[in-house]
Please model this.
Amino acid sequence: MRRWYVVYTRAGMERMAHGQLESQGYTVYLPQRLKERRHARRIDNIKVALFPRYLFVALDIEKDRWHSIHGTHGVSYLVAMGERPSAVPVGIVESIRKRENEEGLVEFEELVPHENGDVVEITSGPFSDQTGIFRCGDDKQRVTLLLNLLGREMEIQLPANTVRAYA
Model:
């Protein structure tokens, strides 16, 4: 029976491992998303792995030669429990694929539902009950706020789950 298994790749070599595994005849899935990259006063959107260093491979563990995956260029190892690879629970890969857009990129709700300039309230931590101006969020689930502290405006970074829209 064919199931999905997880391959752990070398750092930054997800695409290389994907291509190498496909050339060996494996069915491989590398979910990707768009990431905003800022460099030298420029902002680009680039495709990156949804799960850095991980991709999926479909195998029938009883019939396929899965040991050769370990020697594939770009692959560190096939995720296993003991001697045998561990299958991904049924439906996980399929649900990820359902979230892909027409470009094959996985779309998901924004982690930070605020826009630049929104007034937000801090709900926990040392700045609890303070209000600030939302500046931006990043893909590490942090937000940058502008707070008026001690008579001057200061930028601070906090976990995204510690702010909410000010009512």
Observations:
- The domain at 3-98 is CATH 3.30.70.940 (Alpha-Beta Plaits).
- DSSP finds two helices and 13 strands in the chain.
